Amino acid sequence: MSLDILFIHPNASGKIYQDLNKDHSAIEPPIWAGMLANRCRNKKYNVQVLDCEALRLDYRHSVNEIINFNPRIACFVVYGQQPSASSQNMEGAIAISKILKKTKPEIKILFVGGHVAALPTETLEKENSVDIIALNEGAYSISNLLEVENLDDYTYLKKVKGIGFRDEEKKIILTNPENIIPKNSLEKDLPGVAWDLLPNLSSYRTAGWHSWTNNSDKQPFAAFYTSLGCPYKCSFCMINIINRTNNSQNISSKNSNIFRWWSPEFVIKQFEFFAKKGIKNIKIADELFVLNPNHFLKICDLLIERNYGFNIWAYSRIDTCKPQYLEKLKKAGVNWLGLGIENPSNVIRKEVHKDSFKKVKIIDVINTIRDQDINVAANYIFGLPEDTQESLNFTYSFAEETNSEMVNFYCAMAYPGSPLHLEAKRKKLKLPSTYSGYSQHSYDTQNLSSEKLTSKDILKFRDESWMKYHTNPKYLALIKSKFGDNAEQNIKNMTKIKLKRKLLGDRI
């Protein structure tokens, strides 16, 4: 039987993470590729998934595998589980698509994901190897496209809602937008991940710190969504851009802040599958899991009833993580909560529309979480528009004083689809010239400058702060006392790796 569509998760992990790629960066299941594949399979199309990252395929071997499948459509899924992931995944996707187009031009190349949803016209103008793009999340538009018998017939392509392409005169056409899947249709139209089409879950690796509460065993690992989107409008985030239902060039994620979720009864079936497979490390990839009590508390109840013994990592905001939720979260297996603190200053958070928890004392929330034996992965951003050297120092001092079990230090980045990206273009700030430049860990990282600081100043501060925090004796003592020698050694091994940065004058 011929293959209708192959969903491809590209691999450029070496370029995106540098030497962290070997042992330390996570290898996460391509959730969106698995969900789109499952939807199309349920529509009776013949589908497969190729996870180039999990299989550790370079660009040429990726192309060889695609050709072996010989699909009618090769769909590159440039999604990810954090704001930077879509744009940085374009690096590998474009590299593979260029080789594929030269080698097997009759295969139609389709792109779907956050980056192309944010920049549809720009993508088609810039990338000749891309034949067609999906304009939002892609669920309906891809199945619409599969109904077209002749993909070279532009008359029919123009009738397909929710796609972009170049016509016979090389003119860029964006068709009428397609809807996103409404909440009440999620279970029918996006019925979970086609796990059977992905590599064995032993191929996937969680972040090192997540595994500390599971004897430092990073594999196997699973991740999935219980909800999609976010109701908030943070300026630095582009996660909601895939919800867009118009083709305006000036729209951002704040115009599409939609939150949808699967029922707890549907979600628990996913957990039951992981339990049968012997999976312990699980990431709930929701932008915000701890948000709607009617949703996440019911899931917790179902997990507690079954007592699977999972080691779960999930995300919360400071102001949604109420003390009364914590005992139940812990009993359900949530050992780690990722908190988007971003900046301890209310003034700076206000500038990026994340000041709604200004009345909440951050340190008290963190201490309350830790009192329930839930570990904190605190996330901070350096270089937000109002940041100064003094405020950077204050943010780092706050992080060091708090001494969370894990911290992630990020630079403010103009992710396509975010309000910061539109603002950066308006101010003519320097943007990444490569897709890997949107990665926080790549050689060619190009973060934003602030009103008072250069991009170089901010990146240098970020890298030095990360090293300083993770070599602090106080922090290492905490890790050793809570998680043992293996966890402490993991940190020490990681701090031996120095990221090389073009912006800071390093050579490779």
Write a brief caption for the model.
With 508 residues, the protein is an alpha/beta fold. Helix content is 39%, strand content 16%.
Structure characterization notes:
- The protein is α/β, with parallel strands linked by helices.
- It has 2 domains: 3-174, Rossmann fold (3-Layer(aba) Sandwich), CATH 3.40.50; 184-433 and 448-484, Alpha-Beta Horseshoe (pyruvate-formate lyase- activating enzyme), CATH 3.80.30.
- Helices cover 39% and strands 16% of the residues.
- It has helices at 13-17, 20-23, 31-42, 59-69, 85-103, 114-118, 120-126, 139-146, 154-157, 186-189, 208-211, 264-276, 293-306, 323-331, 346-351, 362-371, 389-402, 419-427, 455-470, 473-483, 485-495, and strands spanning 3-9, 47-51, 71-78, 108-113, 132-134, 163-166, 172-174, 221-224, 227-229, 259-261, 281-284, 311-316, 334-342, 375-382, 406-411.
- The strands form 3 sheets. Strands 2-1-3-4-5-6-7 form a 7-stranded mixed sheet, sandwiched between helices.
- Strand 11, helix 13 (293-306) and strand 12 form a beta-alpha-beta unit.
- The model has no long low-confidence stretch (mean pLDDT 94).
